[in-house]
Design goal:
18 helices, 589 residues, single chain
């Protein structure tokens, strides 16, 4: 590993005195000079916006994005965007990308679901190809828009372009357009049925679309058997066809000469281990991947994977040796009902994507994965074994990426034990929030990126603060919000006659919900912030060096989609300190 001095970080840590040094969070931080990535988000949820900004800045990049109103998603009855719709402005965003290219940008991470459909949710609902109007009045078909985007970016051989796309999930979004929970469940049941297997020469786009309404035996599936009307199934299948046809056009263009600097990364949205309607789609798309392209489980982690992989390729990182350990004995099963493969297979695919090879020797990084408990009576034993290994890796100075794929089966006990017994801020990466389908990609993208950056990157105050925010955001939201505050908030909203999945349907008191969110979070995060402020984090691997976290302040709690499922918040940090030391259970400086 490359030996580097850390004058900036160490200059910040020249503090002395007894007790834990918890510096006052700064009101203004110095600007950083960073390389720019033009980024079109999937939508305006935190995992596609703020957290991608943190990851990029931790690697020395700066994200430039369209105005938020251009990529927002609005659920039913919520105020529309400036373009008068519930979805992103496709023409304005396409023009924005073209403007970035004209201005000399040479790095791109672009979600095709946003550029071509106005966001992930709307990509599940658009049943017809609709023309795209640019701000100057030019009207393009969707296929013409694809061609214009790709050929324009290909004209500059110095461009590095990551195109992100998704395999449509089994059912559309509840509370968007006319779909409700009953319709979602009915379509999911319809989509989860197996279709005729296609392979070889029969695996074509037209033949695939012909199998959509057919069961495994080749006979038509009766929509009435699922309580669905004919029109609803036709709309659903048309949306699938439209989306697949656009992806096919992108892959066809990329297969020609001049697109060697393009990468396509496709994520599999909510799925099932059954032989569902996605099976042929996945096989079709996979058969057309080029060297450097990938198709992996998970969609909301695609930007993390793309930004991390962009950095790894630009720095010519050669990969690392890792030890992967599972606790809970359920790694051979899907982590939840929405995964299409066993957890270990999904982990293996992501390890290969990031060039993380398992080794029997001393690893560069340890990956610890808590699965659902195979035996409920052994839950304490499972996470106790993980905790023991984590502590040992801490003593041995081996960085750790921690994946909580327990799907809530351990309650709050696992998190409470971690908070009491380990330095959470020392982890290289952590993931457990949101859907289980994305925890592997989220954790490994951040873990691989940080490991590579410690070996090859140019550390600045800005990169280290961004790394700290990334880790704090993941820990605080998972430990405090998902497992403590959210259940209480769900109950409160329902008691008030509101809808936790959409505060506008019926219209609830969003200000009241936000005040309650802030009060509950301020209580729930106290032990976590105390832990982080007493934690150290790795700033060098050779020689192994740590620095101490400073103060942490959270503010501006908010509901990005005006629903209780996820939250956003601002994280302010103080100066880093000398490494915190612990003697007889008491931290001293």
């Amino acid at each position: 590993m490359k030996k580097r001095l850390l004058p900036l970080i160490l200059a910040l840590t020249m503090l002395t005195g007894c007790g834990v040094q918890s510096t006052e969070p700064l009101t203004q931080e110095p600007a950083a000079e960073e390389e720019t990535i033009a980024y079109v988000p999937l939508d305006d949820r935190p995992d596609n916006w703020e957290r991608v900004v943190y990851l990029a800045e931790s690697l020395g990049y700066q994200l430039t994005m369209p105005e938020p109103d251009l990529f927002r998603t609005r659920l039913n009855d919520q105020p529309t965007n400036a373009n008068g719709t519930q979805y992103g402005d496709r023409g304005a965003q396409l023009q924005w990308v073209l403007d970035q290219e004209a201005a000399g940008c040479d790095r791109y991470v672009l979600f095709l679901d946003q550029l071509l459909s106005g966001g992930l949710v709307n990509s599940r609902a658009m049943a017809d190809h609709e023309d795209i109007a640019l701000p100057d009045g030019t009207v393009l078909t969707e296929f013409e828009a694809v061609d214009l985007l790709l050929t324009t970016l290909a004209a500059d051989e110095n461009n590095e372009v990551w195109l992100l796309d998704s395999v449509m999930r089994l059912a559309p979004t509840v509370g968007y357009q006319h779909w409700d929970l009953a319709g979602y469940n009915a379509l999911r049941d319809y989509g989860i049925l197996g279709r005729p297997d296609l392979s070889g020469e029969s695996l074509t786009l037209s033949r695939l679309e012909e199998t959509y309404p057919l069961g495994k035996d080749g006979q038509p599936i009766a929509p009435a058997d699922f309580g669905l009307r004919d029109g609803e199934v036709e709309e659903y299948l048309s949306a699938r066809s439209r989306k697949l046809e656009l992806t096919d056009r992108v892959q066809t263009v990329l297969s020609g000469p001049g697109f060697e600097n393009f990468r396509m990364l496709i994520g599999i949205d909510d799925s099932s281990a059954e032989e569902c309607i996605q099976k042929n789609e996945i096989a079709f798309l996979r058969s057309r991947l080029r060297t450097g392209d990938a198709l992996l489980s998970g969609v909301d982690d695609l930007a993390f994977k793309a930004v991390a992989k962009l950095y790894l390729e630009e720095t010519h990182w050669q990969g690392a040796g890792v030890t992967v350990r599972y606790y809970g004995d359920m790694q051979q099963e899907a982590a939840c009902a929405y995964d299409f493969q066993p957890l270990q297979k999904i982990m293996d695919d992501h390890l290969a994507f990031f060039r993380l090879a398992e080794t029997e020797e001393r690893p560069d990084m340890a990956v610890l994965v808590l699965t659902q408990p195979a035996d409920e009576s052994k839950r304490t034993d499972y996470y106790g074994a993980l905790l023991a290994d984590l502590k040992q890796y801490r003593k041995d100075h081996i960085p750790v990426t921690l994946v909580d794929a327990g799907n809530g089966r351990y309650g709050t006990a696992f998190h409470e034990t971690l908070t009491k017994e380990v330095d959470l801020g020392w982890l290289l990466s952590y993931s457990g929030f949101l859907d289980m389908a994305i925890v592997s990609g989220t954790a490994l993208s951040h873990g691989a990126a940080r490991l590579a950056f410690l070996e090859t990157g140019k550390q600045t105050e800005s990169t280290e603060r961004a790394f700290a925010r990334t880790l704090a955001d993941s820990v605080l939201k998972d430990f405090a919000y998902k497992h403590v505050v959210r259940p209480e908030l769900l109950a409160y909203v329902q008691e008030q006659g509101g809808n936790p999945d959409n505060f506008w349907n019926p219209k609830g008191d969003i200000e009241d919900y936000t005040v309650r969110l802030a009060a509950a979070m301020n209580t729930a995060v106290r032990p976590l912030i105390k832990n982080l402020e007493r934690s150290n984090f790795i700033v060098s691997l050779a020689p192994y060096t740590e620095a101490g976290w400073g103060g942490i302040e959270l503010s501006n709690y908010r509901f990005p989609w005006d629903r209780a499922f996820e939250i956003a918040m601002d994280i302010r940090l103080g100066d880093f300190t000398e490494p915190h030391k612990k003697k007889f259970g008491i931290y001293v400086q």
